[in-house]
Structure formats: structure tokens, C-alpha cells
Amino acid sequence: MSDQVNQAKLENKAEQLVAAAKRAGADACDAVAVTGVSLGTDVRNGRVEETDRSEGDDFSLRVFVGKKSAIVSANQVNDPEDLAERAVAMAKVAPEDAFAGLADPDRLLKEFPELELLDDTVPSAATLTELALAAEEAAMAVNDVTKSGGASASWRLGGIVLATSHGFKGSYVSSRFGLSMTAIAGDGTAMERDYDFDYCTFLEDLLDPVVIGRRAGERAVRRINPEKVSTQTANVLYEARAARSLVGHLAGAINGASIARGTSFLKSEMGNQVFAKGMRITDDPFKRRGAATRPFDGEGTASPVLDVIDDGVLTSWFLDGATGRELGLEPNGRARRSGGGTSPGSTNLTLSPGKNSPEEMMKSVGSGLLVTDLIGQGVNGVTGDYSRGASGFWFENGEIVGPVSEITIAGNLKDMFARMVPANDLDDRYSVAAPSILIEGLTLAGS
């Protein structure tokens, strides 16, 4: 474990808070201690613009008095008794919540899996600067790239400790490395920008900065002199980077909190065919070196691997203890700490790839829009109505014709999910991962 993060100190503080809360009159409680150390550098035009280092701890104590609860947070804990007494006093005057409470004891994680969460490499500011400068240099070497939008390199260690009054104590430390580059092509009002990036758990897995820079430059150049398209119904192929948003919309729709509130367009679809047969979407908290890999959830419970979509059928909501109790369902270890409390959410959510390449898909449908960038948040989670700005490339006879922009894609996610066809180019580096996705017959609003 990295000596940059003092987990023993955090564990001790969390246990002190739990003990103090019990003495103050809490029927049950849990404490979370989080620490972080980060270093980052930004460069532009071959020079360092900024270098930042930060570190700090955060503590939160959640107490239950009967069905009433309260949460207090602090950046440091000098007097656990004072913090606990304030939390219990707040809980006593809070409204009752019939579904609040700690996880059932028999669901607590007993054996901690061995996971690849931590790279002990501690980069210097000079190392990060070299990475960023290499990415920028590669982007600027691309013909027709006229300006640098800047490059950034970063490193972070994060540690978390969870202790509960019914016997759970667990902790883990994870690392994260990141690199990004933004390039600008063209001049004056015809300028276009695009970017490329990578982030990963182990430095050895980070993409070559030259590759990141070159791709950022090439993407920006490809966007020069975009045209508009007429309003029409067309085939739309979301490249993998844009396709992740579609899987993200599913994650929001099957969140237990949305289901309990009745605010999801999929609230009545459990057990139904939501996607085409053969489609599989898996949520895996134990994915090797995954962006959201973790040994236990925010309540200290095990998190099984879930095929939330199995052969196109919706099989699971994301549930923490509270939403599980409210819906009368067994929780499935998807609790996230949020403001000291919990809320359900996904871990490493992945849409399995299909058989054909994006190029083969474009040839099979003939013409349409290849989406490389999406704008705005035009999704109604209650109805599933979808309306987002987009840009990308028009293709005819399976071949790219040229860049297009100022387009709005409209549809309904329930219908879009049913007609999604995945390509074979899965990029699984991210917490929400997807290959390119083809949806035929969407409405495009253009000129």
C-alpha cells in the first residue's frame, strides 16, 4: 500500500467516531473517512501554465435514532465526542424514514477480494509535464492544426475507510493517472477543436502521449468546414466515445432511486425485452484494473456481478439498502456514498460488443450520420424522450463524405434501446464502456 495515504490513521478515526456515536445514544451508525492526494500539470504552447498539488481528508458520520437519522461531516476530527453528540441531537429532531438503516448484518462482506486497484508509482511534476508536452507536440505536428487548446496530465491516490456499529470495517486505496490534449484546427470563424484523452489505474496502461496528441490533432482537422444536413430520418452510428452516453442513460433509468420515485421510463419493464435478443450489459465491480472497481459497496456489502440486460431482457435495478427496502427487493450491493449517506449506482457497466466493425455497419446501411460529439443534456428520464445536439460525419455508400454539425438527434430511448446494434470495437477502459452503436431510422433536425 502506498505510503502517500495513511489508512491506519483513517481507520482509527472512523472507529473513534462510531464508538463516540454509540456513547452519545445512537442506535446504529457508520463512519466514512476519505483521503486524497493529487498532482496535476497543464501546459500550453510548450510551457507549463499551472501545476497543482492537493491533499486532504474528509470524515462523515451517519447516525440512526430509531427511524430517524442525521449526517455530519468534517475535514478533520479533533473531538469525536462533540461531532457524535451533534449528530445524535440532529437525528432526534429529524423526520422518520421508514427505509433508512444500515445493511443487514448477513449481507456484510466477510472476505475481501484481491483487486488491482493501486499502482505505487508516484510521478513527479516533471514526469507529468513531460507527458503533457509530448502529447501537445504530437498534436501540433499534425498538418492544419493551428493552435493548442492545452494538454493536461494528472495523478491521484484516493483512500476510503468504512466502519459500522454492527461490526464492519473495510478500506482500500486506488490510483488514477490521466492525460488529455485539445487541438484547434483552421483559422478565424472556421476554427474547429477536438480532443483525446485516457485515464487508467496503472501508469503502464496509459496510452502513449504521442498517440493521444496525434489523435486529438487528427480529430480536429477532420472537423474543418462542416456542412449542415436537412431535416430527415436517417441511420445514426454513434462512435464508441459517444455511444457510452446511451449506456449511461440506461444506468440512470434502472437506478433504484428513480424506480422508487416512479420517475423512470423503464419503471414497468422489469423482466421485459428492452433490447434486442443477444444484447448483454454487465455491471462488474471486480473488473481487472477497472475505473470503478471496488471490493465492497458504500454499505460494506458484497457487490455481485450483474447482467442487468441478459439476452435483451432487463433483469435488475441498481439497489442500495434503502431503495431495496422501499421496493421490497433484495439489495444488490450498489450503494454509493453520497453526502455521507448512500444512493444506488453502477460500477463498471459494459455493453458487450457485436460482430461487425463500424465500417461494415456503414456499408450495410449505405448512408447516415456518424456521431463523434454530443452536446447538451436533452433527455427526459420520466418519458425517455431524447433530443441532443450532435456533430460528426455524413457517410454515403458506406464511405465518409465530410464533416457535419448543428444537428439535433430526436427519438425516445425506449424505442432506441430496442433498435440498438453494437459494433465490435469495444473500448472498455472506462466505468461506462460501449462499442460503437448503430440505430437505424432516427429523426435528425438540421437546416
From TrEMBL:
Q: Name one GO molecular function term.
A: metallopeptidase activity
Q: Which InterPro entries match?
A: Metalloprtase-TldD/E_C, Metalloprtase-TldD/E_cen_dom, Metalloprtase-TldD/E_N, PmbA, TldD/PmbA_N, TldD/PmbA_sf
- Name the domain of life this protein comes from: Bacteria
The chain positions of domain Metalloprotease TldD/E C-terminal read 231-446
State a GO cellular component annotated for this protein: cytosol
Cite the Metalloprotease TldD/E central domain residue spans from the record: 123-223
Q: Where is the composition biased (Low complexity)?
A: 344-353
GO terms in the biological process aspect are:
proteolysis
* Residue ranges occupied by any Metalloprotease TldD/E N-terminal domain in the UniProt entry: 29-91
Recorded hits in Pfam families, A to Z, give: PmbA_TldD_1st, PmbA_TldD_2nd, PmbA_TldD_3rd
Disordered: annotated segments: 328-362
Q: Belongs to which family?
A: Belongs to the peptidase U62 family.
Q: What is this protein called?
A: Microcin-processing peptidase 1
> What is the species of this protein?
Roseibium hamelinense
